[in-house]
Each structure stands twice: as C-alpha cells, then as structure tokens.
Amino acid sequence: MSQPPYDPFADLPPLPTPPDDADGGSKSGGARERQQRRKQQAHAQPATTRKAPKQTAPGGRLRMPRLNFTVNKIWITLAAAIIVVIIVVVVLGQLRPARLDAGANAIWAGTEWTYDAPDDQTVADFAQKLRDHDIGTVYAWVSWLQEDGTWRGTTNFPNVKRFVEQFRAAYPEATLYGWVSLPVSGGADGYRLDDEGVQQAVADFSQRVVNDFGFDGVFLNVEPVWDEDESFLSLLRSVRSALGIDALVSVAAPPDWSPEGVDIPVPPLIVPGTVWSDTFKQSIALLSDEIAVMAYNSGLSTPDDYSRWVAYQVSAFARAIAQLGEGTHLVIGMPTYDAEPPGHDPLVENIASAESGYQLGLEQAGDSASFVRGRALYAGWTTDDQEWAAFKEAVTP
Question: Are the beta carbons of 135 and 391 closer than 8 angstroms?
Fold first, then answer.
C-alpha cells in the first residue's frame, strides 16, 4: 500500500506546550510611510555646503574683505572654546565603557521562560548565554488564539510581564518580541483567517503585548499562509494599525517549499501555494520590520540537498525584499528540534547543514545579502550543548 503524500504543513514543529495549569483561556499608505521613515533614518543626507560669495568691486576688480578685529577676536575665542568642549567630550567618551551592540541572531524561547517564573539569576545566565552566541533578538512565547476565541494561558500572563522586566534588566540592548500564534484552522468552514473578528482579536492582543506586557514588538506566527492570501495582509494591516509605526512587527514566514524551474532539490510533494511570489513577500515586508524564514521541515533526505534548499530560501527572500530598499530585514531559521518524520530528520537538517546553506545563500544573493541580518534558532528548549557549540562555531568570525 502506497504512503500518503507528504503534506509540509501537517508536520510543522508544534507550538510550545503551555504548563498544565494554563487556563483555557493603517493601510498600505501607512506601511509606505513607515518604510520611508526608516529609509530616511538610515540614509540621512548631510547639509548642503554653500559656496562663499565672491568679493569683487563693481568694476570686477578684486576687493579684500574688510576686517573687524574686535568681532574676529570674539569669534576666535568662541571657536577655541568649542574645540576644547569637543576634546573633552571625546576623551570622556573613550573613558566611558562602550555600550555593547546586541547580536545579529535570534532564538525562539518557550514557556520555560515566560510561564515558569525563573528567578533573576537564571534569566541573567540565559541573557549571558545569548550574548556569548551573538543572539540579540528573542521571540518569547506569550499565547495562541484558541478555536473558541480565547487566548491560551491567561493565568500565566503576570509571569510573562515579570520575565520581560527580568530580561530587560539582564540584557537591555536586546530586542524582545512577544510571540503570538494563530493557527488558521477553525471557524464554521475550518478556516478563520478571513474572519474580521479574529483579525481584530489578534490586533488588540498585539497591542496589549506591547503596551501592557512591555515587549518591543510582536512576533506573529500564523500557519499556514498560502501565496497571495489577502486575509493575511489584512491581518498585518490591522496589527500595524493597532501598534503604530514605532513598535516592531516580526513575521514568521514559511519557506518556498517546492519552487519550480530552479536547480535545487525539492520535497517529495509539490504543493501549490507554498511558494510565495516576490510581490507577496514585498507586501509582507512593507507591513513588518523583520521576516523570520522557517527554513526547515523540508522533507529532504541528504544534508547537501538541504543546504542547497536553504541557500535558495536565503537568496530568494533577500532578492525580493531588497527591491524595496531599507526598512525590513531577514533572519533565517535553523532547526535544533528532535526528529519529526517525514518533514524533519536531524541527521539531514542541523546547524552544520543549515549554516552551509546560509553561507551559500548569502553568496548567491549578492548585494541583496545585506538585507539578511542573521540566523534564528528553533528552538531554545530543544537546543542541547552540542548544538549550542555548533552554533557558536558557526557565528564566530
């Protein structure tokens, strides 16, 4: 008897399991404005230098400027004072400890941090581990919208807020996203992403994640999302409208599982709709600050095939959003979770093979590679010591 066809969405890594005591419970113009604002910040233009007027007599003869020695003395004294101030500022800046920049990479963090109330020292140790591995962005689990329209784990929300405070104290330069998930299955017809009430519920909760819980932004994990899904764009517009242009929005994106007409290995089953068009990727980029490509669960059978497949994801997404200019960057997911056949085999999909594909993809992307910020470990609760060591080797120059 033949095996059923491979469904990539059926084998997606599961959401982190809440603790046992968890209860049951702007349009495109705004996007353009946000993109333009960030572009202007990234490329501030220097003031135009005006030429000094020519000093000429009416007949065209050169005329020496008239000097006022009293006024010039004042200006000379003032200029000297300014130079002294500048020197003092520079010296003090060198004496003051330099602020460390947060690492370029990211990690998915589960309920062991946000629900289980770790003590301050444990959070501080976690922050140091992230620093040691060049990880400066954390997607910290908050909740998911259940079929009945309630948010999972509400009794744990005080612990979520406490974790935010603890993490801020331990790693203030890091970017901390509240991870919010929406499985699209549900509703009367088995699909709820087109439900305006569901979209508003996610937008309202995202606002709470930022304003009440204290996160820098929201990390939206909506699955599955098919190519050109206008309902997904509508959801992102609602979230962006609720948060404004200053709070951050990161979006988990599925990989282009089975692209056609390219010389790379593809999974056993080509599923229509699992390859996002460039225009759809760009539409999502216009509404977000970051896209995290979940480049795993490929269903491929050799590390080399997987590396080539990852390289395609890196270059394809980078080239698409590079056409927009500044404003949105990419991180590429790397798997550390246990075997989940047929989609994920750790002997095929691992840090080494993912890193090989990541580097190859940067080469293939050319100038567009500048839009790729780093890697994202999936997931913190499944990464063992050997994988941490492999990741550190990968990110160490």
Answer: no
Residue 99: pLDDT band with limits 50, 70, 90: very low
Is residue 18 situated within a structural domain? no
Query: CA-CA distance, 366 to 286, in Å (whole number)?
Result: 22
Buried b (16+ CB within 10 A) or exposed e, 41-79: eeeeeeeeeeeeeeeeeeeeeeeeeeeeeeeeeeeeeee
Q: How many CB atoms lie within 10 A of CB 295?
A: 31
Provide the 8-state DSSP code for 339: P
Using DSSP's 3-state secondary structure scheme, residue 199 falls into helix
The one-letter amino acid at 154: T
Q: Is residue 387 part of a domain?
A: yes
Closest CA to 274 of 4, 5, 7, 3: 7
* Rounded alpha-carbon distances, angstroms, from residue 144 to 18, 50, 180, 199: 10, 58, 6, 13
Res 127 pLDDT > 70: yes
> Strand, coil or helix: what is 268?
coil
Residue 167 CA to residue 143 CA, distance in Å, equals 18
* Dihedral sign (CA 108, 396, 364, 308): negative
The answer to whether residues 115 and 189 touch, using CB atoms and an 8 Å cutoff, is no
For residue range 223-257, list pLDDT tens digits in order.
Answer: 999 999 999 999 999 999 999 989 999 999 999 99
Q: Give the total number of structural domains in the chain.
A: 1
State the chain's mean pLDDT as an integer.
82
* Amino acid at position 268, single letter: P
Amino acid at 152: R
- The CATH code of the domain that includes 147 is 3.20.20.80
Q: What is the pLDDT of residue 56?
A: 30
Could you tell me the two tokens for 356? 């090989």
Residue 115, domain member (yes or no): yes
Split at pLDDT 50, 70, 90, the class of 397 is confident
Q: What is the pLDDT of residue 327?
A: 86
What is the distance between the terminal CA atoms of the chain, rounded to a whole angstrom? 51
Calpha distance 246→243 (Å, rounded): 7
Question: For the whole model, what pTM was predicted?
Answer: 0.79
Residue 199 has pLDDT above 90, yes or no: yes
C-alpha to C-alpha distance for 150 and 238, rounded to whole angstroms: 18
Q: Is residue 76 part of a domain?
A: no
Domain containing 228 equals: 103-395
